[in-house]
Amino acid sequence: MTPVGRLATREDLPELRTLITEAIDELQHGFLDPAQIRASHAIMGLDTQLIEDQTYFVVELDGRIAGCGGWSRRATLYGGDQSAGRDARLLDPATEPAKIRAMYTHPAFTRRGVGRAVLSLCETAAAAEGFTVLELMATMAGQPLYAAAGFTFVEQVLESSSGVTIPLARMRKTLRR
Questions:
Q1: What pTM, to 2 d.p., does this model score?
Q2: Are residues 80 and 46 in contact, defined by beta-carbon separation less than 8 angstroms?
Q3: Contact 74, 54 (CB under 8 A)
Q4: Which CATH code for domain 4-174?
């Protein structure tokens, strides 16, 4: 079946929170150690401002939410509702990149085009609002998907939570006109 996307709603939140927890817990194996995976929950997750802004998507496959992710016209690059330091400032599409945010695939649906479907929805929506560049903060597990989708590595970022360091990668992509 082909993944089908739609805007996420507040009614999706319980299922999205479960999906995100399972994705962090299962898909980071091989990239992070158990302490780093546990600590990741403090710096990852869903920022519900994305749902309020109508820039967060779910992708359904086989009648279930298989993945989710969004883009933002706001300055925050990553983190969920629980993360400190979020910045709600609106970005200037002429001079600043839109942010790809909170991308997660349910572990039962990996390698089925879910992540690419979410990215496609985000790229189309951001371009429609005049953005020409996208930026994201990738986990080590997500970095191969983003590289395959045309994002390039900008810099490594080391985030700390509860005394545990988690490696991340800032990546960018220029959209075709």
A1: 0.95
A2: yes
A3: no
A4: 3.40.630.30
